[in-house]
Amino acid sequence: MPGTCGSVTGMVGAVVDRTHDIAPDAWRRYAEVLMVGFGLEQAPTARTSAMTDAQIRLTWPRPSAQPPAD
């Protein structure tokens, strides 16, 4: 699986960038899901929990107050 490591770190990094202020450990759950998907672990552990709906909404980009440039 060439390139897999870079893809995984990119995906987990994106989660870290979006969630670090709201749920600092959220990246751990996504890393576990990826490891299970690649067959590196049997199942996600009980150490991590999902983000709440409210936390997820806080990670969404906010609309800009400025009109788009022409």
Description:
The chain has helices at residues 4-19, 26-37, 53-59. The chain is mainly alpha-helical. Helix 1 (4-19) packs antiparallel against helix 2 (26-37). The radius of gyration is 15 Å and the shape is flat. The model has no long low-confidence stretch (mean pLDDT 77).
Distance between the termini: 43 Å
Which structural class best describes the helix and strand composition? mainly alpha
| Rounded radius of gyration (Å) | 15 Å
Largest beta sheet, briefly? none
> How much helix is in the residues?
40-55%
**Number of DSSP strand runs:** 0
Give me the strand/helix succession: HHH
Average pLDDT metric: 77
Shape: flat
Low-confidence stretches: none
Total number of helical segments? 3
Strand content: under 5%
In short:
The chain has 70 residues and is mainly α. The protein has helices spanning 4-19, 26-37, 53-59.
Question: What topology does this entry show?
Answer:
Layout: H1 4-19, H2 26-37, H3 53-59
Helix pairs in contact: 1-2
List keywords for this structure.
single chain; 70 residues; mainly alpha
